[in-house]
Amino acid sequence: MALAPLRFCFDYLSPYAYLAWTRMPALAARHGRVLEPVPVLLAGVLNATGNIGPAEVPAKRGYIFKHTFRIAHELGVPFGPPPSHPFVPLLALRVTAAVDDLEARARLVSTLFAQVWGGGNGAETPEQVATALQAAGLDAPSLLAAAQRQDIKDRVRRNTDEAIAAGAFGVPTVIADGELFFGLDSLGHLELFLRGEDPLKSEFLERWKNLPATASRR
């Protein structure tokens, strides 16, 4: 029986998603899993879960750039801010969703992430996205046109809704056999899970779920 793919839910807005993506192909290969990049709209996830993005908290916005820059240095991957942030990622998400072949989609994800967080020129405008499509060896005019179709717009919306229904509250989120792993720092936990060595036992989880709350913040 074929193993279920690892669904990598992401938005190009997130530097943590970029850094996690640089690890994901090798991680999936180590465990014999297909890697399925799933473009979702982070704003939709945040709205549905009552959260705000890190870039919307001024003190956190500055810290996150420093934090992710240091992580990129540790990982040995290129890193630089996009021309603006936050930016509108919809076009990049939609052209990604329009690519059905997973290998080609993964290639495009790598190229778009490099343009956003790897020192490139960004991936917001049609011209910027076209550059990434061409660099990934894909048909830029065809995919830019596809991104305007309602079925492709609906595909990104459906991806987002499905991630929320699965319990996602941010990106990057990896869904593995129904279990969610959020954030770059959860990739080590994901590997334990895939090896059958997850230390979390069901009885501990049930206890946490049933803990009463004795304080609330208004």
TrEMBL record:
Gene Ontology biological-process entries: glutathione metabolic process; naphthalene catabolic process
Keywords associated with the record: Isomerase
Keyword DNA repair: no
Annotated ranges, domain DSBA-like thioredoxin: 8-191
Recorded superkingdom: Bacteria
Keyword Repeat: no
Catalyzed chemical reaction(s): 2-hydroxychromene-2-carboxylate = (3E)-4-(2-hydroxyphenyl)-2-oxobut-3-enoate
Catalytic residues in the record: 14
CDD domains noted in UniProt: DsbA_HCCA_Iso (cd03022)
EC numbers, comma separated: 5.99.1.4
Pfam families per the UniProt record, alphabetical: DSBA
A single MF term (Gene Ontology): glutathione peroxidase activity
Family: Belongs to the GST superfamily. NadH family.
Stated name of the protein: 2-hydroxychromene-2-carboxylate isomerase
Organism of derivation: Myxococcus stipitatus (strain DSM 14675 / JCM 12634 / Mx s8)
